[in-house]
Predict the 3D structure of the following.
Amino acid sequence: MDHVNLCIVGAGVVGIAAAEAFSRHEGANASIVLLEQNERFGQQTSSRNSEVIHAGLYYPPGSLKASLCREGNALLYAFCSRYGIAHRRLGKFILAQAGEEDSLLALEKNAMANAVNNLSWTSAASLHKQEPLLRAAAALFSPDTGIVDSHGLMDTLLQHARQRAVAYAAGTRVTRVTPLTHGFEVHTTNTGDGQAYRFQCERLVLAAGLQASALAAVVEGFPKALIPDIRLLKGNYFRLAGAAPFRHLIYPLPEAKRHGLGIHATLDLQGNVRFGPDVEEVLQLDYRVDPMRRERFAVAIRSYYPGLEVTRLLPDYAGIRPRLRTADDSAADFQILDSSHHGLPGLVALFGIESPGLTASLALAHRLVELSRLQR
Protein backbone atom coordinates (compact mmCIF):
# COMPACT_ATOMS: atom_id res chain seq x y z
CA MET A 1 0.00 0.00 0.00
CA ASP A 2 1.26 3.49 -0.88
CA HIS A 3 2.30 5.69 2.01
CA VAL A 4 2.66 9.48 2.24
CA ASN A 5 3.67 11.84 5.01
CA LEU A 6 0.69 14.17 4.62
CA CYS A 7 -2.69 14.15 2.91
CA ILE A 8 -4.70 17.36 2.47
CA VAL A 9 -8.33 16.96 1.43
CA GLY A 10 -9.87 19.90 -0.40
CA ALA A 11 -8.23 22.04 -3.09
CA GLY A 12 -9.91 25.32 -2.41
CA VAL A 13 -7.72 28.30 -1.63
CA VAL A 14 -7.05 27.14 1.96
CA GLY A 15 -6.17 23.58 0.99
CA ILE A 16 -3.88 24.75 -1.81
CA ALA A 17 -2.24 27.33 0.45
CA ALA A 18 -1.69 24.59 3.04
CA ALA A 19 -0.08 22.31 0.43
CA GLU A 20 2.26 25.14 -0.60
CA ALA A 21 3.14 26.01 3.01
CA PHE A 22 3.81 22.40 4.06
CA SER A 23 5.93 21.74 0.96
CA ARG A 24 7.98 24.85 1.67
CA HIS A 25 8.53 24.08 5.36
CA GLU A 26 9.15 20.35 5.06
CA GLY A 27 11.30 20.29 1.92
CA ALA A 28 11.31 18.25 -1.24
CA ASN A 29 11.78 14.93 0.59
CA ALA A 30 8.35 15.14 2.23
CA SER A 31 5.62 13.24 0.41
CA ILE A 32 2.41 15.27 0.28
CA VAL A 33 -0.80 14.59 -1.62
CA LEU A 34 -3.62 17.09 -2.23
CA LEU A 35 -7.03 15.62 -3.05
CA GLU A 36 -9.98 17.39 -4.67
CA GLN A 37 -13.35 15.80 -5.46
CA ASN A 38 -14.19 18.23 -8.29
CA GLU A 39 -12.60 18.24 -11.73
CA ARG A 40 -10.68 21.46 -11.02
CA PHE A 41 -9.37 23.25 -7.97
CA GLY A 42 -11.33 26.07 -6.32
CA GLN A 43 -14.62 25.39 -8.08
CA GLN A 44 -16.86 26.19 -5.14
CA THR A 45 -16.54 28.85 -2.41
CA SER A 46 -13.00 29.91 -3.35
CA SER A 47 -13.96 31.07 -6.84
CA ARG A 48 -17.50 32.30 -6.19
CA ASN A 49 -17.04 35.35 -3.99
CA SER A 50 -16.28 39.07 -4.21
CA GLU A 51 -12.50 38.49 -4.45
CA VAL A 52 -12.05 41.15 -1.78
CA ILE A 53 -8.93 41.38 0.38
CA HIS A 54 -10.47 42.29 3.73
CA ALA A 55 -8.78 44.42 6.38
CA GLY A 56 -10.35 42.78 9.47
CA LEU A 57 -12.89 45.39 10.60
CA TYR A 58 -15.96 43.34 11.40
CA TYR A 59 -14.94 40.28 13.39
CA PRO A 60 -15.12 39.91 17.18
CA PRO A 61 -11.81 40.81 18.87
CA GLY A 62 -9.91 37.71 19.84
CA SER A 63 -11.62 35.54 17.22
CA LEU A 64 -9.77 33.44 14.67
CA LYS A 65 -11.44 35.44 11.93
CA ALA A 66 -10.06 38.68 13.33
CA SER A 67 -6.47 37.53 13.88
CA LEU A 68 -6.14 35.44 10.73
CA CYS A 69 -7.73 38.09 8.53
CA ARG A 70 -5.37 40.79 9.77
CA GLU A 71 -2.32 38.53 9.41
CA GLY A 72 -3.53 37.17 6.08
CA ASN A 73 -4.10 40.66 4.66
CA ALA A 74 -0.40 41.52 4.95
CA LEU A 75 0.74 38.09 3.74
CA LEU A 76 -1.58 38.18 0.74
CA TYR A 77 -0.50 41.61 -0.48
CA ALA A 78 3.16 40.62 -0.10
CA PHE A 79 2.68 37.29 -1.92
CA CYS A 80 0.77 38.90 -4.79
CA SER A 81 3.40 41.61 -5.20
CA ARG A 82 6.25 39.11 -5.13
CA TYR A 83 4.79 36.73 -7.71
CA GLY A 84 2.93 39.14 -9.98
CA ILE A 85 -0.61 38.07 -9.10
CA ALA A 86 -3.12 40.68 -10.24
CA HIS A 87 -4.50 42.72 -7.35
CA ARG A 88 -5.37 46.32 -6.50
CA ARG A 89 -5.42 48.08 -3.14
CA LEU A 90 -8.52 50.14 -3.97
CA GLY A 91 -9.67 51.08 -0.48
CA LYS A 92 -13.21 50.83 0.83
CA PHE A 93 -15.82 53.28 2.08
CA ILE A 94 -18.23 51.98 4.73
CA LEU A 95 -21.27 54.25 4.70
CA ALA A 96 -23.59 55.47 7.43
CA GLN A 97 -26.90 57.09 6.61
CA ALA A 98 -28.49 59.69 8.87
CA GLY A 99 -29.00 58.17 12.32
CA GLU A 100 -26.44 55.40 11.76
CA GLU A 101 -23.36 57.34 12.87
CA ASP A 102 -23.21 55.57 16.25
CA SER A 103 -23.12 52.21 14.51
CA LEU A 104 -20.27 53.42 12.33
CA LEU A 105 -18.41 54.57 15.44
CA ALA A 106 -18.94 51.15 17.03
CA LEU A 107 -17.51 49.53 13.91
CA GLU A 108 -14.44 51.75 14.13
CA LYS A 109 -13.93 50.78 17.78
CA ASN A 110 -14.24 47.11 16.86
CA ALA A 111 -11.65 47.56 14.10
CA MET A 112 -9.25 49.28 16.50
CA ALA A 113 -9.64 46.38 18.93
CA ASN A 114 -8.53 44.17 16.04
CA ALA A 115 -5.40 46.35 15.53
CA VAL A 116 -6.87 48.00 12.44
CA ASN A 117 -5.85 51.54 13.32
CA ASN A 118 -5.68 53.26 9.93
CA LEU A 119 -9.37 53.93 9.29
CA SER A 120 -10.31 57.54 8.65
CA TRP A 121 -13.62 59.38 9.05
CA THR A 122 -15.02 61.02 5.95
CA SER A 123 -17.70 63.69 6.06
CA ALA A 124 -20.59 63.79 3.62
CA ALA A 125 -18.96 66.74 1.82
CA SER A 126 -15.59 64.99 1.52
CA LEU A 127 -17.24 61.78 0.38
CA HIS A 128 -19.12 63.70 -2.30
CA LYS A 129 -15.84 65.04 -3.67
CA GLN A 130 -14.37 61.54 -3.94
CA GLU A 131 -17.50 59.63 -4.94
CA PRO A 132 -20.04 62.22 -6.14
CA LEU A 133 -22.79 59.68 -6.92
CA LEU A 134 -22.99 58.33 -3.38
CA ARG A 135 -25.36 59.42 -0.62
CA ALA A 136 -24.33 59.07 3.03
CA ALA A 137 -24.17 61.12 6.22
CA ALA A 138 -20.63 59.90 6.99
CA ALA A 139 -18.20 57.18 6.04
CA LEU A 140 -15.15 55.28 7.22
CA PHE A 141 -12.35 54.72 4.75
CA SER A 142 -10.31 51.52 4.91
CA PRO A 143 -7.11 51.88 2.85
CA ASP A 144 -6.04 48.22 3.23
CA THR A 145 -9.11 46.73 1.55
CA GLY A 146 -8.56 45.60 -2.03
CA ILE A 147 -9.28 42.99 -4.67
CA VAL A 148 -7.35 39.99 -5.97
CA ASP A 149 -7.46 37.53 -8.85
CA SER A 150 -8.46 34.50 -6.78
CA HIS A 151 -7.87 32.03 -9.62
CA GLY A 152 -4.42 33.47 -10.27
CA LEU A 153 -3.64 33.19 -6.56
CA MET A 154 -4.71 29.54 -6.37
CA ASP A 155 -2.95 28.66 -9.63
CA THR A 156 0.33 30.20 -8.43
CA LEU A 157 0.16 28.49 -5.03
CA LEU A 158 -0.57 25.13 -6.68
CA GLN A 159 2.27 25.55 -9.16
CA HIS A 160 4.69 26.24 -6.30
CA ALA A 161 3.42 23.21 -4.38
CA ARG A 162 3.70 20.88 -7.39
CA GLN A 163 7.20 22.13 -8.15
CA ARG A 164 8.12 20.83 -4.70
CA ALA A 165 6.68 17.41 -5.61
CA VAL A 166 3.21 17.76 -4.06
CA ALA A 167 0.96 15.22 -5.82
CA TYR A 168 -2.36 16.74 -6.85
CA ALA A 169 -5.30 14.43 -7.59
CA ALA A 170 -8.52 16.03 -8.80
CA GLY A 171 -11.71 14.03 -9.28
CA THR A 172 -10.94 12.06 -6.12
CA ARG A 173 -13.55 11.67 -3.39
CA VAL A 174 -12.65 10.42 0.09
CA THR A 175 -15.15 7.76 1.13
CA ARG A 176 -13.68 6.52 4.41
CA VAL A 177 -10.79 7.24 6.77
CA THR A 178 -9.58 4.62 9.24
CA PRO A 179 -7.20 5.59 12.06
CA LEU A 180 -4.16 3.34 12.43
CA THR A 181 -1.71 2.96 15.30
CA HIS A 182 0.34 5.66 13.57
CA GLY A 183 -1.54 7.64 10.94
CA PHE A 184 -4.55 6.88 8.78
CA GLU A 185 -5.77 4.70 5.94
CA VAL A 186 -7.62 6.82 3.38
CA HIS A 187 -10.15 5.23 1.04
CA THR A 188 -11.01 7.11 -2.15
CA THR A 189 -13.09 6.78 -5.30
CA ASN A 190 -12.34 8.32 -8.69
CA THR A 191 -15.37 10.45 -9.59
CA GLY A 192 -14.89 9.68 -13.29
CA ASP A 193 -14.55 5.91 -13.56
CA GLY A 194 -15.51 4.91 -10.01
CA GLN A 195 -12.21 3.16 -9.39
CA ALA A 196 -11.39 2.67 -5.71
CA TYR A 197 -7.97 3.39 -4.26
CA ARG A 198 -6.57 3.45 -0.74
CA PHE A 199 -3.32 4.61 0.82
CA GLN A 200 -1.82 5.43 4.20
CA CYS A 201 -0.71 8.79 5.53
CA GLU A 202 0.94 9.92 8.74
CA ARG A 203 -0.99 13.19 8.98
CA LEU A 204 -4.29 14.37 7.57
CA VAL A 205 -5.71 17.86 7.03
CA LEU A 206 -9.42 18.19 6.21
CA ALA A 207 -10.11 21.46 4.36
CA ALA A 208 -13.27 20.51 2.53
CA GLY A 209 -15.29 23.73 2.77
CA LEU A 210 -18.93 23.03 2.00
CA GLN A 211 -18.34 19.29 2.49
CA ALA A 212 -16.37 19.66 5.74
CA SER A 213 -18.96 18.08 8.03
CA ALA A 214 -19.80 15.29 5.59
CA LEU A 215 -16.11 14.47 5.31
CA ALA A 216 -15.56 14.42 9.06
CA ALA A 217 -18.48 12.00 9.34
CA VAL A 218 -16.59 9.33 7.32
CA VAL A 219 -13.56 9.51 9.64
CA GLU A 220 -13.88 6.56 11.99
CA GLY A 221 -13.57 7.67 15.59
CA PHE A 222 -14.21 11.36 14.96
CA PRO A 223 -16.67 12.36 17.70
CA LYS A 224 -20.07 13.02 16.18
CA ALA A 225 -20.74 15.71 18.79
CA LEU A 226 -17.86 17.76 17.37
CA ILE A 227 -19.13 17.73 13.78
CA PRO A 228 -20.94 21.06 13.35
CA ASP A 229 -24.16 21.66 11.49
CA ILE A 230 -23.31 23.65 8.37
CA ARG A 231 -25.85 25.97 6.79
CA LEU A 232 -25.54 26.63 3.06
CA LEU A 233 -25.82 30.39 2.59
CA LYS A 234 -26.17 31.48 -1.01
CA GLY A 235 -25.00 34.91 -2.08
CA ASN A 236 -26.31 36.26 -5.38
CA TYR A 237 -24.52 38.91 -7.45
CA PHE A 238 -25.76 41.35 -10.07
CA ARG A 239 -23.39 43.19 -12.38
CA LEU A 240 -23.86 46.79 -13.49
CA ALA A 241 -23.87 47.24 -17.25
CA GLY A 242 -21.91 50.19 -18.60
CA ALA A 243 -19.37 52.50 -17.02
CA ALA A 244 -18.47 52.14 -13.35
CA PRO A 245 -19.94 54.91 -11.16
CA PHE A 246 -17.35 54.41 -8.36
CA ARG A 247 -13.57 54.24 -7.94
CA HIS A 248 -13.57 52.49 -4.57
CA LEU A 249 -15.30 49.54 -2.94
CA ILE A 250 -18.58 50.71 -1.40
CA TYR A 251 -20.16 49.00 1.63
CA PRO A 252 -23.20 49.82 3.76
CA LEU A 253 -23.07 49.01 7.46
CA PRO A 254 -23.11 45.26 8.16
CA GLU A 255 -26.36 43.49 8.90
CA ALA A 256 -27.44 42.62 12.44
CA LYS A 257 -25.52 39.76 14.11
CA ARG A 258 -23.01 39.94 11.23
CA HIS A 259 -25.50 37.92 9.19
CA GLY A 260 -24.00 39.55 6.10
CA LEU A 261 -22.05 42.65 5.11
CA GLY A 262 -24.97 44.12 3.19
CA ILE A 263 -25.34 44.37 -0.58
CA HIS A 264 -22.15 46.20 -1.45
CA ALA A 265 -20.42 47.38 -4.60
CA THR A 266 -17.12 45.87 -5.65
CA LEU A 267 -14.99 46.39 -8.71
CA ASP A 268 -13.20 43.63 -10.57
CA LEU A 269 -9.72 43.96 -12.00
CA GLN A 270 -11.18 45.19 -15.30
CA GLY A 271 -13.01 48.03 -13.53
CA ASN A 272 -16.51 46.55 -13.82
CA VAL A 273 -18.96 46.92 -10.93
CA ARG A 274 -20.96 44.13 -9.36
CA PHE A 275 -23.34 44.29 -6.41
CA GLY A 276 -23.80 41.61 -3.77
CA PRO A 277 -23.96 39.27 -2.15
CA ASP A 278 -27.30 39.01 -0.47
CA VAL A 279 -27.98 36.15 1.97
CA GLU A 280 -30.27 33.27 1.06
CA GLU A 281 -30.27 29.94 2.91
CA VAL A 282 -30.54 26.97 0.55
CA LEU A 283 -30.69 23.21 1.01
CA GLN A 284 -28.49 22.20 -1.91
CA LEU A 285 -25.88 23.62 -4.23
CA ASP A 286 -27.65 25.77 -6.80
CA TYR A 287 -25.69 28.56 -8.45
CA ARG A 288 -28.48 30.00 -10.59
CA VAL A 289 -29.32 33.67 -10.00
CA ASP A 290 -33.04 34.44 -9.99
CA PRO A 291 -33.60 37.62 -12.07
CA MET A 292 -36.60 38.40 -9.84
CA ARG A 293 -34.21 39.35 -7.04
CA ARG A 294 -33.24 42.46 -9.00
CA GLU A 295 -35.88 44.72 -7.42
CA ARG A 296 -34.75 43.72 -3.93
CA PHE A 297 -31.19 44.55 -4.92
CA ALA A 298 -32.25 47.88 -6.36
CA VAL A 299 -33.94 48.97 -3.11
CA ALA A 300 -30.81 48.17 -1.09
CA ILE A 301 -28.45 49.82 -3.56
CA ARG A 302 -30.50 53.00 -3.91
CA SER A 303 -30.14 53.62 -0.17
CA TYR A 304 -26.58 54.78 -0.95
CA TYR A 305 -26.60 55.11 -4.78
CA PRO A 306 -29.91 56.86 -5.52
CA GLY A 307 -29.14 57.35 -9.20
CA LEU A 308 -29.13 53.64 -9.97
CA GLU A 309 -30.92 52.72 -13.19
CA VAL A 310 -32.46 49.36 -12.41
CA THR A 311 -32.33 48.25 -16.06
CA ARG A 312 -28.51 48.26 -15.79
CA LEU A 313 -28.61 45.53 -13.13
CA LEU A 314 -28.05 42.13 -14.77
CA PRO A 315 -27.85 38.70 -13.09
CA ASP A 316 -24.21 37.65 -12.78
CA TYR A 317 -23.24 34.67 -10.60
CA ALA A 318 -23.80 33.18 -7.15
CA GLY A 319 -21.64 31.64 -4.45
CA ILE A 320 -22.45 29.42 -1.48
CA ARG A 321 -20.57 29.66 1.80
CA PRO A 322 -20.48 27.23 4.75
CA ARG A 323 -21.93 29.03 7.78
CA LEU A 324 -21.81 27.13 11.07
CA ARG A 325 -25.20 27.08 12.74
CA THR A 326 -25.39 29.03 16.00
CA ALA A 327 -28.11 29.34 18.63
CA ASP A 328 -28.74 33.03 17.91
CA ASP A 329 -28.27 32.80 14.12
CA SER A 330 -25.15 34.99 14.23
CA ALA A 331 -22.02 34.37 12.16
CA ALA A 332 -19.77 31.84 13.88
CA ASP A 333 -16.00 31.87 14.05
CA PHE A 334 -13.72 29.55 12.10
CA GLN A 335 -13.21 26.17 13.76
CA ILE A 336 -9.81 24.45 13.71
CA LEU A 337 -10.00 21.11 15.53
CA ASP A 338 -6.84 19.12 16.28
CA SER A 339 -6.13 16.07 18.42
CA SER A 340 -6.63 18.06 21.63
CA HIS A 341 -10.29 18.29 20.59
CA HIS A 342 -11.08 14.99 18.88
CA GLY A 343 -8.34 12.64 20.14
CA LEU A 344 -7.00 11.55 16.74
CA PRO A 345 -3.25 12.37 16.60
CA GLY A 346 -2.13 13.84 13.29
CA LEU A 347 -5.58 15.02 12.16
CA VAL A 348 -6.61 18.66 11.79
CA ALA A 349 -10.14 19.50 10.59
CA LEU A 350 -11.39 22.91 9.45
CA PHE A 351 -15.04 23.95 9.64
CA GLY A 352 -16.93 27.11 8.69
CA ILE A 353 -14.22 28.62 6.50
CA GLU A 354 -16.30 31.35 4.90
CA SER A 355 -15.45 35.04 4.52
CA PRO A 356 -12.73 36.16 5.24
CA GLY A 357 -11.33 32.77 4.22
CA LEU A 358 -9.75 34.04 0.99
CA THR A 359 -7.95 36.87 2.82
CA ALA A 360 -6.96 34.58 5.69
CA SER A 361 -5.82 31.66 3.50
CA LEU A 362 -2.05 32.15 3.81
CA ALA A 363 -2.33 32.79 7.56
CA LEU A 364 -4.51 29.70 7.96
CA ALA A 365 -1.90 27.67 6.09
CA HIS A 366 0.81 28.86 8.48
CA ARG A 367 -1.42 27.96 11.45
CA LEU A 368 -1.90 24.44 10.07
CA VAL A 369 1.86 23.95 9.69
CA GLU A 370 2.39 25.00 13.31
CA LEU A 371 -0.38 22.70 14.58
CA SER A 372 1.07 19.81 12.63
CA ARG A 373 4.50 20.38 14.16
CA LEU A 374 2.99 20.27 17.65
CA GLN A 375 1.28 16.94 16.93
CA ARG A 376 4.29 15.13 15.47
Remarks:
- The chain has nine helices and 20 strands.
